[in-house]
Amino acid sequence: MSDTKGLTVASILAELEQPNVDWQQLLESVITSFDCSTGTLHFLNQETELLQIQAHKGIPPFLIPKLSTIPIGKGMAGIAAERKQAVEMCNLQTDDSGVARPAAKETKVEGSIAVPMLLDGKLYGTLGIAKPVPYDFTEEERRNLLEIGEAMSKALLA
Q: What are the pLDDT digits (tens) for 11-38?
């Protein structure tokens, strides 16, 4: 997978093998690689069992307080963490499933996905990206995002 900027899943995985990962840069690489406009990266606080924002891009400033701490089971990131599987929406703007929190619509994104960061079945956080248009992520894209999530979990332990 690549785009006009030449970023690939392999190059993102290589970034994660470096010491002292720049999480903001890494998130931006993922967003670019998957041709998205918005993204969030949350790490799980193992003591509180809350997801804490680590990096974000394209999120309106007034929404940052609402997504800085996310309980497991709330919103797309929280549900991805709870289920330990990818959660996606073709169009977040028209979704009425209750998975997306009402404030999420303020991001103005449509096609969105959140994946858990898992290593050996243990949750370390979530990665979410979105496009400004309706979109269904492919099975390969889901697999690649889960692989990136696993590599991010390993980097956290390094």
A: 999 999 988 999 999 999 999 999 999 9
Q: Are 55 and 26 in contact (CB under 8 A)?
A: yes
The predicted structure's pLDDT at residue 6? 46
Instruction: At 57, list the tokens.
Output: 């891009």
Residue 150 CB contacts under 8 Å (≥ 6 apart), including other chains: 117, 118, 119
* Two tokens, residue 41: 């990266």
For 150, the 3-state DSSP assignment is: helix
Q: Are 30 and 39 in contact (CB under 8 A)?
A: yes
What topology is assigned to 9-157 in CATH? Beta-Lactamase (3.30.450)
Task: Identify the CA nearest to 118 among candidates 68, 80, 90.
Answer: 80
Spatial contact of 114 and 126, defined as CB atoms under 8 Å apart? yes
Cα–Cα dist 73/58, whole Å: 23
Helix (H, G, I), strand (E, B) or coil at 97: coil
Domain ranges (residues) in the chain: 9-157
- Take residue 151 and report the two structure tokens written for it: 């590599």
Q: What DSSP state is assigned to residue 91?
A: -
Q: Which string of b and e fits 103-136 if b means at least 16 CB within 10 Å?
A: ebeebebbbbbbbbbbbeeebbbbbbbbbeeebe
